[in-house]
Design a protein that fits this description.
Blueprint (H helix, E strand, L loop, with lengths): L2 H16 L5 E4 L2 E3 L2 H16 L3 E5 L2 E5 L3 E2 L3 H13 L5 H21 L7 E11 L4 E12 L2 H35 L1
Antiparallel strand pairs: 1-2, 3-4, 4-6, 5-6, 6-7
Helix pairs in contact: 2-3, 3-4
């Protein structure tokens, strides 16, 4: 991922956070599409021509992947991937409704994992569409966190320091044991 792509994603993430319009319920199974969702539909068509990150797993079963993105963009990206890959099988309002519920759950998981907005993640989820219930079911959600070189160095440094500390403690314990065995 180039610096330009990262900067563009960071700008989009900030734009996303500032946007407060969401899907507004109008009644049973009816939703008002916000400008954000209309924009997503346009971008989804672009993505369809390039790369849709989806793998068919069987009848009405797919694996969706966001690819590597900054965490702040996960909801936007997952919604777009779902719109691109499922739009021929699943009604748009069902996709938007169910993916928004998944995004709420994912947000909670990301915060529990202490993943920051600018951390790199990849989210892969299996989705199954039940035609009778007109509902998407999400299974086997996998969140992969990626670390920068600096973060890896910092973690390695902390582990190395802990290792050296334990090594000193172990040598002190060995010395104490040797003294005890000599005194016996």
């Amino acid at each position: 991922m180039s610096v330009e792509e990262i900067n563009r994603d960071m700008e989009r993430a900030q734009e996303y956070e500032e946007t407060t319009s969401r899907v507004s319920p109008l009644g049973e199974n009816r939703f008002e599409l916000s400008t954000e969702i209309n924009r997503d539909m346009e971008r989804a068509q672009e993505y369809e021509e390039t790369t849709s990150r989806v793998s068919p797993l069987g009848e009405n079963r797919f694996e969706l992947s966001t690819g590597i993105i900054i965490a702040a963009r996960f909801a936007d990206k997952l919604r777009r991937v779902a719109l691109v890959s499922l739009n021929r099988i699943v009604p748009r309002d069902v996709i938007i409704r169910d993916v928004s519920e998944l995004n709420k759950e994912l947000f909670n998981r990301l915060t529990e994992m202490k993943i920051g907005k600018l951390d790199l993640v990849k989210i892969v989820v299996e989705v199954r569409f039940n035609r009778d219930e007109k509902k998407l079911y999400f299974e086997n959600v996998k969140i992969t966190r990626y670390y920068t070189e600096e973060q890896c160095r910092a973690m390695n440094s902390a582990i190395s320091q802990e290792y050296e500390k334990m090594k000193k403690e172990l040598s002190q314990i060995k010395a104490t044991l040797e003294q005890l065995t000599k005194s016996i």
